[in-house]
Structures are given as structure tokens and as C-alpha cells.
TrEMBL record:
It comes from Variovorax rhizosphaerae. Belongs to the binding-protein-dependent transport system permease family. The lineage of its organism: Bacteria, Pseudomonadati, Pseudomonadota, Betaproteobacteria, Burkholderiales. InterPro entries: MetI-like, MetI-like_sf. It is a multi-pass membrane protein. Keywords: Cell membrane, Membrane, Transmembrane, Transmembrane helix, Transport. Residues 69-249 form the ABC transmembrane type-1 domain. It comes from the Bacteria. Pfam families: BPD_transp_1. Gene3D superfamilies: MetI-like. It is found in: Cell membrane. The chain crosses the membrane at residues 14-31, 76-98, 134-154, 174-194, 232-253. Signal peptide: none annotated. This is ABC transporter permease. SUPFAM superfamilies: MetI-like.
Length: 267
């Protein structure tokens, strides 16, 4: 065990992460090559990595890739942007004002457990275009993680800091700007990162049902024509885009919080 720990400490973390991806790829290759059938799961119809790579290369060279990616990215960032603005604003108000908590939080808590997928039929009826309905589904999916994390972040601010600021003569706006908002910002950024991932999940579901372009639509159409390699290609595109957009949100959060000490590396 000690030798393994010493070996791990001598190798960069990026190398370990790359090795983990290679290990997953190797398991996938072996499972599909041997057509494993474990009873509860089978790889007999799962395409191998090489076939998926060939399909991905064909999609990258196709002019349709820009239309699919552009449609999905546009819907995600519009829906997520609206959810971020409204979720942070409502969370700050609910976290600081008792009247807002009593008036706004109960109906929001009733709506929160409803899956975004359940909103799709109503969204189609409410909005004149499928584009607007898909943006709305993305907005709904991202709203509640942002809202609740903002509320929790505001409520977690130490009351002694607020009292100290007031004792020094700070007015309400100054307390909010200098104490409440910086104290809640880590939770807000966490909610934004979670909301971004949820937005992708909801968007792909909406695109499968009512989209004409987008990664979700591409994945669903690949299934309907039984092009199994393209299904995996669509899934991988979704994963990479979701991971990249969530990493972008976390990076912006680090830029906005220069006072936070760097996270200590795990041993």
C-alpha cells in the first residue's frame, strides 16, 4: 500500500485521469469484442470503440455538426442564463426577507419536484414554437438548483459577520454587497454548476421529443434508424459539452472569488 501511494504521488494527476479514461475505453473494447452477456446486462449489440470513433469522425466532417451543436448550445445558454438570473435574484431575496420566504418559497417547493420532462406537453401548448418550449424546459431544469443553493448560501452566512458590519455603521446595501453576497457566492457557483448539468439533461430530453436539430435529436434519430454507433457518438458529445460548460461555470466562479484559498490537493 505504501509503495502504491508513493507511486501515485510521483505521477501527475493529469496522467492518472488520462489512465482512468484509457481503462474505461479498454473495458468497453473487451466487453464489445467478446460480446459479453452477464445476464442483467449485455454488450452483444453495443458498438465497439473503433466503430464509434469512425462515426464520430464522419459527424465532425459533416456540415450538419455545426447545426446540431449550434442549436443545442444556443438553447442551453439561453435557458441557463435566464435561470441563473432569476434563480440568483429570487434566492437572494428569499434568503434575506422573511416575507419573500413565506410568499414565494411554498409555491416554488410545490413546483420543484415536478420533473422537467413532465413540463414538455404543457410547454408545447404554452409556447407558439418548439424552440421556445425547449428553451423553457432547459430553464425549468436549471432554475431550482440555482435557486436552492443561493437560498442556502445566504442563510449560511454567519450572523455575527452581519452584526459586526452593522455595528461599524454599514447600511443595508453595504452589508448585502460586502458580507451577504461574498459569503453566499460559493454556494451560488455550486448551484450554477449543478444547474448547467441539469440544463443539458433536460434539453436533450426536450430535443428528443420536439426538436429538429440538436444533439438530443441526433441521438434519438440514430436510435430510430438503428444506427447504434451514432447513438454513442451523441451521448459522448452530450457528456463532453456538459462537462466543458460546467467547468466553464466553475472557472468563472474562481475568477469572481479571488479571496478564496486554493483547494488543498487530496492525498
Amino acid at each position: 500500500m505504501a509503495s502504491l501511494i508513493n507511486l501515485r504521488n510521483g505521477v501527475p494527476r493529469s496522467a492518472w485521469r488520462f489512465a482512468a479514461l484509457l481503462a474505461c475505453l479498454l473495458v468497453w473494447h473487451i466487453a464489445t469484442q467478446r460480446r459479453m452477456n452477464l445476464g442483467f446486462i449485455t454488450f452483444q449489440n453495443v458498438p465497439p470503440p473503433r466503430e464509434v470513433a469512425e462515426s464520430a469522425w464522419s459527424l465532425v466532417r459533416s456540415p450538419l455538426v455545426l447545426e446540431h451543436l449550434g442549436a443545442s448550445l444556443r438553447r442551453v445558454f439561453i435557458g441557463f442564463g435566464l435561470a441563473a438570473l432569476l434563480g440568483v435574484a429570487l434566492g437572494l431575496v428569499i434568503g434575506r426577507a422573511r416575507w419573500a420566504e413565506d410568499a414565494l418559497l411554498p409555491p416554488l417547493e410545490v413546483l420543484r419536484p415536478i420533473p422537467a420532462v413532465a413540463w414538455i406537453p404543457l410547454a408545447i401548448l404554452m409556447f407558439p414554437s418548439s424552440e421556445a418550449s425547449m428553451v423553457f424546459i432547459t430553464f425549468v431544469g436549471a432554475l431550482f438548483p440555482v435557486l436552492l443553493n443561493t437560498v442556502h448560501g445566504v442563510e449560511a452566512v454567519d450572523a455575527r459577520l452581519v452584526a459586526s458590519a452593522r455595528s461599524l455603521g454599514a447600511r443595508r446595501l453595504a452589508v448585502f454587497r460586502e458580507v451577504i453576497l461574498p459569503g453566499a457566492l460559493p454556494s451560488i457557483v455550486t448551484g450554477l454548476a449543478i444547474g448547467m448539468g441539469t440544463a443539458w439533461f433536460c434539453l436533450v430530453t426536450a430535443e428528443m421529443i420536439s426538436g429538429q436539430f440538436g444533439i438530443g435529436y441526433y441521438t434519438w434519430m440514430s436510435y430510430t434508424i438503428q444506427n447504434y454507433a451514432d447513438i454513442v457518438v451523441g451521448m459522448l458529445f452530450i457528456g463532453v459539452l456538459g462537462m466543458g460548460s460546467s467547468a466553464l461555470v466553475r472557472w468563472i466562479g474562481q475568477v469572481l472569488m479571488p479571496w478564496r484559498p486554493a483547494q488543498e490537493k487530496r492525498s
